[in-house]
Amino acid sequence: MTILIAVFGLFHPQLLTVRPATASPVRVVEPAAKELRATAELRTGMKIEGDFVLAVPGKIERRFQGRLDVRQGKGELIAVLEADLERAVAAVVAAEMPASFAEEARKAQAIVARSWYIASRGRHGDFDFCDTTHCQVFKEPATAAYPPLAIRYRGEAFAPLYSASCGGETKTEADTGMNPDAYPYFRVACAEHAEAWERRFHGDDAAAIQRQPHSERVRLALGRALGWDALPSNNYIVAVQSDEIVVKGKGRGHGLGLCQQGADAMARQGAMAARIIEHFYPNTRISGMR
Ligand SMILES: [Zn+2]
Ligand SMILES: [Zn+2]
């Protein structure tokens, strides 16, 4: 199975270049079959394939493998990579989990990432996914092979949510005001050693937190206005102190589903990937892909 991932959208590319990543040339499929052995500019309508380094000159470059086609967006080029699903899964695991994390935690992350991709195809209309946290972070190619398993709830694939660190207990949709999909998330205890944090807010920001504590919508709004780390997680208590509030919390991210830190902690205590998945997504089944 292949998926279409638009890469570098964050950089609003006006110019894209490509060069071979290895001694093998990059093949141009359209407009006319030929081989590129040096850096070349990509134009709208071009399709290439191979193992290559794509660049927005002066901003970013990254190695990719697969087919890439260049489309015209509104005032920018859109680079759409047709990636092999298993390579994309490996890339997500590499981007989402440090190499120091235990292997069974990385396997659990692979099952979650694959399930998310399978259940969320077509998210962007003209292509399936972007390469940012809006979809799943996708960076360097990775080749690690993980068992081809996916999570199902009542027999259906769903897009499992996960976060960096739940702070000791995961959250539900009701806790955070999120409404992600068909799967009802549970609060489960987590064995991680969560990082504690403290933030102070006043005025409208403080009012928003007090009105809807633990709301993911409020957390994201504060992140947009004040910086992504404004309110690190939804696991916190609020204390009023004269004209401001003090928010003391633990963890990072929305807190629903698999907790990456907790998965690592479980794996270090001997849990296998399937056990980790069962723990964070109660009432689901893991099965092969069909
Ligand atoms: Zn996206
Ligand atoms: Zn946790």
What does this structure look like?
By secondary structure, the chain is an alpha+beta fold. The chain has two domains: 2-85, no CATH class; 163-281, no CATH class. The chain is 24% helix and 31% strand. Helix 2 runs antiparallel to helix 6 (260-268). The protein starts with a strand and ends with a strand. It binds zinc ion (2 copies).
Give the structure's gist in a few sentences.
With 290 residues, the protein is of the alpha+beta class.
Structural class: alpha+beta
| Approximate helicity band | 10-25%
Bound small-molecule species = zinc ion
Rg: 21 Å
The biggest beta sheet reads: 9 strands, mixed
The tally of domains stands at 2
Q: How many DSSP E strands?
A: 17
The stretches of 5 or more residues where confidence is low (pLDDT under 50) are none
Strand content: 25-35%
N/C terminus separation: 11 Å
Envelope shape: globular
The sequence of SSEs as H and E is EEEEEEEEHHEEEEHEHHEEEHHE
Mean pLDDT level:
93
Helix segment tally:
7
